[in-house]
Write a structure and sequence with these properties.
2 strands; 314 residues; mainly alpha; 13 helices; Rhopdopsin 7-helix transmembrane proteins
Length: 314
């Protein structure tokens, strides 16, 4: 059966789901999601443009921010096609190959975002705890190596997920819980033994999100210890203020993720649309809010953004 699955054109297709119970509002929901896509893509593109054009932002912190913006654009574009056809055109079928590709990219960008937030926390740690060695420790070459490392890590840990799914037989109604393909959703559908898939999926979560969040927490414990050693209250607040944007980015990434996990485990009797809305929040909120947070909190980005808006207006 596996051989037929791999070699024939009879690969399974999947049925995408909008928001169960809210079908009559799907066009309005798409307008809302479309607005979130617009804000996310335009906002992150502006961040990339401003960092490129503003000489004072050619520093490791903003190189990592640029990588985060590229990643957030990738998150938005990886869900956009199926959300568009599901909510706007009511096309529900998705073939196996496209579903596997979408699942790969959604999880690839999610793991990559976690890695980027980790290297950004390392940047803040060095800047605050060892400022005299900042330029030496975070040289351009090392920043590039760190960026490449988190990209390679993301590819390596996510690549086995679609490969392992492809070996399994699908012999029942392949109805997904969302308007896009996610690994936890897909491994409920095969008829075969999914033990290996479950173990690999759990290993990916622990070795990436679990490890990254623990290291980010450790970096902030060390940062806080260093800040508390500063005598002046004003200097302490000024130093901590350099971390506010990053702390907000960490919270808006990890809090929705933990919330989705909690809802799945402890609110199984909640209406289906609650689970779907929580998942949408996890995928849509960080890419939209990250550029807004950094635009508000970073003086150079804010100043350049005002100039762009004034030129556009007049």
């Amino acid at each position: 059966m596996d051989g037929n699955l791999h070699n024939s054109s009879d690969l399974p297709y999947f049925i995408l789901t909008g928001l169960p119970g809210l079908e009559t509002y799907e066009h309005w929901i798409f307008l809302l999601l479309g607005s979130l896509y617009f804000v996310s893509i335009v906002g992150n593109t502006l961040i990339l443009f401003i960092v490129k054009e503003e000489q004072s932002l050619h520093q490791p912190m903003y190189y990592f921010l640029s990588l985060l913006s590229v990643n957030d654009i990738g998150v938005s574009l990886s869900t956009l096609p199926t959300v568009l056809v599901t909510f706007c055109f009511h096309i529900r079928k998705l073939n196996f190959g496209l579903c596997m590709a979408q699942m790969f990219f959604i999880h690839f960008f999610s793991v990559l975002e976690s890695g980027i937030l980790l290297v950004m926390s390392f940047d803040r740690y060095v800047a605050i705890c060892n400022p005299l060695r900042y330029a030496t420790v975070l040289s351009d070459a090392r920043v590039i190596r760190m960026g490449i490392s988190v990209i390679i890590r993301s590819f390596c840990v996510v690549f086995p997920l679609p490969v392992l799914l492809k070996r399994l037989p699908f012999c029942k109604a392949n109805i997904l819980s969302h308007a896009y393909c996610l690994h936890p959703d897909l491994i409920r559908l095969p008829c075969g033994d999914i033990t290996i898939n479950s173990v690999v999926g759990l290993t990916v979560v622990i070795s990436t999100f679990g490890l990254d969040s623990a290291l980010i927490l450790l970096s902030y414990v060390l940062i806080l210890r260093s800040v508390l050693a500063i005598a002046s209250k004003e200097e302490r607040l000024k130093t901590l203020n350099t971390c506010v944007s990053h702390m907000c980015a960490v919270l808006i990434f990890y809090v929705p993720m933990v919330s989705v996990s909690m809802v799945v485990r402890f609110a199984r009797n909640a209406p289906e649309y609650v689970h779907t809305l929580m998942s949408l929040m996890y995928l849509f909120v960080p890419p939209m809010l990250n550029p807004l947070i950094y635009s508000i909190k970073t003086k150079e980005i804010r100043r350049r953004l005002f100039r762009i808006l004034l030129r556009t207006k007049f």
